[in-house]
Amino acid sequence: MNILTYDIEDWFHLLDIDSTATEAEWGNFKPRIHANVERLLELTLRHQHPATFFCLGWVAQHYPEIIRRIDELGFEVASHSHMHQLVYQQTPQQFLEDLKRSIYTLEDITGKKIKTYRAPGFSIMRGNAWAIEALLECGIERDSSIFPAERGHGGYDNFGRAEPSLLNCSTGKIKEFPINLGKFMGKTFVFSGGGYFRLMPFSVIQSLTERADYVMTYFHPRDFDSEQPVLDLPISRKFKSYVGLKGAYKKLDQWLGQNKFIDIATADQLVNWDKAQRVEMSSH
Questions:
Q1: Is the pTM here over 0.85, yes or no?
Q2: Which of 129, 147, 199, 283 has its CA 20 to 30 A from that of 93?
Q3: pLDDT by residue (tens digit) across 75-108?
């Protein structure tokens, strides 16, 4: 099961960077999202793959035509929050209000219920049961916010198997589609999105894909934009943000051509949830 998803945000929506932290800073940058999203749409349509588009409510608010086009082409529109803030840096009330705002904005444009969510930076962690409770309160049925390993933006180590799972909290359960992990030369790592995908050779990515029972991708429009401005970032962060940009679009084209992908809504129908791993979410 290979699942194709995109996080629809602009090139300057970088986390944990002071110069791009909030809407107050975003006005300093020229948008590049229209052309970058269109390239992804063209590529995905050409390969005839369904895909889930996790859209920022902020993008929908400022450029509703982008969301409308994604929806009209038949792709699943999902929420990626409204203001692109890390979950654990918000209070439960702030998170709930941001979530509601994103859902209402996207539903006003598409006229369809938003059922799927992904947190910026995969920042739902152990102890964030309140975030799952908020998702359930807002009618979200499927989540893809768990990064089942250590990560700069939190991560959820010891999550269990990196596969579709049920997250249990006091108010109910939600279907979780975490990021997958792959093993190569004895080491476990992520290969299916972001800088990991850009950095690794295609032969390794394809080999890991063929061996995996479950692959969850996560791409951003900026991952394929080699002409985007380069921000003044710490060296390690600059490497992660800009490595492999020139060859990434061609690599994605090749990957989509050699493998079958589905969206999260379709994957939901294929999973046997009665036998899925169950993970108890706590508030501590």
A1: yes
A2: 147
A3: 999 999 999 999 999 999 999 999 999 999 999 9
